[in-house]
């Protein structure tokens, strides 16, 4: 079984040690390096080319947001999960613009952290419920200011509507497949078709569309 190659970037040794303790016995996760600031995180990524980077936002030398931008330019296949004590709409918006795959509060539970790492490694996105709420608030603020939603047109089938509703409940491909009795590959295919029909780019835009059109509520 291929292990997920993980880099941890945080300027607090206590936090790094805590993450190590939580992930120590996970058979499919291998922590290959640590970094104490954003600049060092970039160097570690260039050297190890990890699958996932778990990175604090507020660090000296270079912030996690700045490091995210640089890493996505030099190692676009590496997935980034940002962690922060503060759920800031500004930080989230900027992180989404630069291609973040996940965003978690630092008080996240072990099972949620492991789920997030596995989810982004599989090519999905993972945002904690507090983060999702901030995304939605930011979306509605823009909507009130007459900003437009990136969406095309296209009629969704019944199964596509079911998949969209479950995506908005925070379910991943495997959870949706078990709920609807279809394969994870079929779920992924439905999601791709939905985004293609609606002219959307990612799961965040998908959820925004779902809120606007009544598939889910804030």
TrEMBL record:
It comes from the Bacteria. PANTHER family: TWO-COMPONENT RESPONSE REGULATOR (PTHR43214). Residues 5-121 form the Response regulatory domain. It comes from Reichenbachiella agarivorans. This is Response regulator transcription factor. Keywords: DNA-binding, Phosphoprotein. The modification 4-aspartylphosphate is found at residue 56. Residues 149-214 form the HTH luxR-type domain. PROSITE patterns: HTH_LUXR_1, HTH_LUXR_2, RESPONSE_REGULATORY. Transmembrane segments: none annotated.
């Amino acid at each position: 079984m291929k292990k997920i190659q993980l880099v941890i970037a945080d300027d607090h040794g206590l936090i790094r040690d805590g993450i190590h303790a939580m992930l120590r016995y996970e058979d499919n996760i291998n922590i290959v390096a640590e970094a104490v600031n954003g600049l060092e995180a970039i160097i570690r990524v260039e050297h190890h080319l990890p699958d996932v980077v778990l990175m604090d936002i507020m660090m000296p030398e270079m912030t996690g947001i700045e490091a995210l931008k640089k890493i996505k330019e030099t190692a676009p296949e590496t997935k980034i999960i940002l962690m922060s004590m503060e759920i800031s709409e500004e930080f989230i918006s900027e992180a989404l613009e630069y291609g973040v795959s996940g965003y978690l509060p630092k008080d996240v539970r072990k099972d949620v952290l492991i789920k997030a790492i596995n989810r982004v490694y599989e090519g999905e996105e993972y945002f904690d419920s507090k983060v999702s709420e901030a995304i939605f608030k930011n979306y509605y603020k823009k909507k009130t200011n007459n900003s437009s939603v990136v969406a095309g047109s296209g009629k969704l089938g019944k199964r596509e509507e079911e998949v969209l509703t479950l995506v908005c409940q925070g379910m991943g491909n495997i959870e949706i497949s078990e709920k609807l009795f279809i394969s994870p590959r079929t779920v992924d295919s439905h999601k791709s078709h939905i985004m293609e029909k609606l002219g959307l780019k990612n799961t965040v835009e998908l959820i925004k569309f779902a809120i606007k059109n009544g598939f889910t509520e804030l």
